[in-house]
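Homework-ish question, so no full write-ups if that breaks the rules, but can someone show me the predicted structure for this set?
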Amino acid sequence: MSNKLKGNAVVGQSGGPTAVINQSLIGVIEEIYEQEYINELLGAVHGVEGILNENFVNLKQIPRKKLEVVARTPSAALGSSRMKPKQEHCNQIFEVFRKNDVRYFFYIGGNDSASSAHIIDNLAQEAGYDLKVFHIPKTIDNDLLVTDHCPGFGTAATFVAQAIIGNDLDNRSLPGIKVDIIMGRNAGFLTASSVLARRYEGDGPHLIYVPERPVNMDKFCNDVCEVYDRLGRCLVVISEGICDEDHIPWAQRIQKEVEADAHGNVQLSGSGALAEFISVKLKEVLPGKRMRTDTFGYLQRSFPGVVSPVDAYEARYCGRMAVSYAAKDNTTGSVCMQRFGKDDRYRVETFVTSLDSVAVKTKSLPDMYINEEGNNINESYYEYVSPLAGPLPEVGFLRS
Amino acid sequence: MSNKLKGNAVVGQSGGPTAVINQSLIGVIEEIYEQEYINELLGAVHGVEGILNENFVNLKQIPRKKLEVVARTPSAALGSSRMKPKQEHCNQIFEVFRKNDVRYFFYIGGNDSASSAHIIDNLAQEAGYDLKVFHIPKTIDNDLLVTDHCPGFGTAATFVAQAIIGNDLDNRSLPGIKVDIIMGRNAGFLTASSVLARRYEGDGPHLIYVPERPVNMDKFCNDVCEVYDRLGRCLVVISEGICDEDHIPWAQRIQKEVEADAHGNVQLSGSGALAEFISVKLKEVLPGKRMRTDTFGYLQRSFPGVVSPVDAYEARYCGRMAVSYAAKDNTTGSVCMQRFGKDDRYRVETFVTSLDSVAVKTKSLPDMYINEEGNNINESYYEYVSPLAGPLPEVGFLRS
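A: Not a homework solution, just the prediction itself:
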């Protein structure tokens, strides 16, 4: 025990909430109970903002039973933050750590959080202050580098699949054109997960568009018409980050079109605009048909009651392993997962990667998962996403 | 048995799907098994359209095990229809019934379905053809007259409550302004059900707007600013049918504003437009604040995996009772529910009302449930809606 780094620990949560980000937090708390040489565990309220203001919750005082309820609660229980700390903030954070004898810092978040953690780690090294920093991955977008997949993604994929199963049943019942817009501005992993909803002959989604593969509105409208002519209905899943051939997001293009048309008096903000204009364009090519566009929005990241047990387990495991790597192995870095086996034999092991290898950049949906025409997802993606998702409800039909 | 009306039966589903409309269908099938003098049970594919085209499924041939899976499946398993049959269609339907020796007709749907059933019943009476017609209520809007509440509503209310719990957790985690748009163009029952999400101090929704109480955009913006100033965040729930002081729906007003502004080149279709323009207006009064608007859309009526057990039971019970009233009591009408007792002692009994008492007109959210200012729902509504909803997930916080 004598060569162990003694002192306090800080844990924080950052970026968009997920359904299992609190599992990672509870994983950190659990594992810290085991490390006797770590005195206090301070929970930073609203991430880096909480550190800057020294607004902490003493996490060792929370009853165990309560922690289990928190673990099952979506969203960041400590509060999250969108703040990207600048160099001077990082200096200040480091001073707070030094003042409070903080020797361990665990930061649950995406690639921006990894960047912040990396800067703080560098400051500590420069100052000769012994600090172990660990980033714990979290994102429904699944776009972090190095790791096979990210905690939070499996549950979001389960929600999307479940929602699309419902939308497909709805569309079978009252045939028409239905377009669902899925989160993920730059990465198509979550949108592609809608393939999980295809289980029976004719099941939608019939078309899937991800941001990695540009598509223009004419091609899109033609695709929808073709499916509608063939099946008498069409369920389309589309990423909010869908781009045209100039790699300009549709949402942005639409904004410009409207502003030009309305002489600057109408401004679009994003949330409903893409849905709205897809409806309008499709109505032009399919007049008089039943048409509806829904944007699933925040439900994808914070709907309580739908969870992937694998995702919940892995999120907690990553939290525990971060503490173990930092406290037992005296290392700094980001927790990654590697998968072994598939289907029933699926399992993961964790390993450590450097903070800078996860910081700043993001991962795209690999090209091999996207069909040649750029309007669907290949069967092989099912193998990737299926073990990460939770069980999906069985459904029954009466018509052929 | 001799005085029983012998022949075949037809069952159909109509209007927007719900999560439990198939429970009512299975209820009809179950109870018809018990009536030996009813020969065939024909399921009309896509409601009245299936009857007109004589497109039927023989429902007595479906294995019992499969029926139980269908019962738990959202959306209309036989297919639904938005068609409002005109007099000549009703004549044609009546001819199909006569040709196929149909003596019982069960129609699961809203007030339009009750109207169709009423017209067909009148035709049979005029022709001296002995036909028993029963309407089985179904609507997530809960806007049918006479009955205490409608099958389908309780589950939709559960989904809305669960979604708002998640959105409130999300909003606590990353404070800002969040607006969620709920279904129900004319009736505020579903929007008002978001009160179920309030369980702890400070829980949202902080403001609730229903279509029954007009509000202008300035008052709305002031309300949001007031809550935001006080709490540092604001979760708003708003009906898609929200109206201004001239009783013109916002969605319609917005359409006109944009069309005028854009010289007719921009058209709005509804699904994203209301969300979009609420965002724009709020950004004008609260510039630079986190702002997001989501429209829950079809998820409210067809999300699989979230169900109110009470609603599922009652939907099936209404289906069974329709057959019992028609076949055993030789009556025609619509099934209604009456409640006795509250909380744990809540239970319902069914009774029959005439088809015309349910047809055409709809029910509004009673005024006593809306607060004086018209921006919130009174505590008393909780008592009305709570027994109808399913259990909601427990959540935990770490901050005060």
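Now go work out the reasoning yourself. Hint: The mean pLDDT of chain B is 92.
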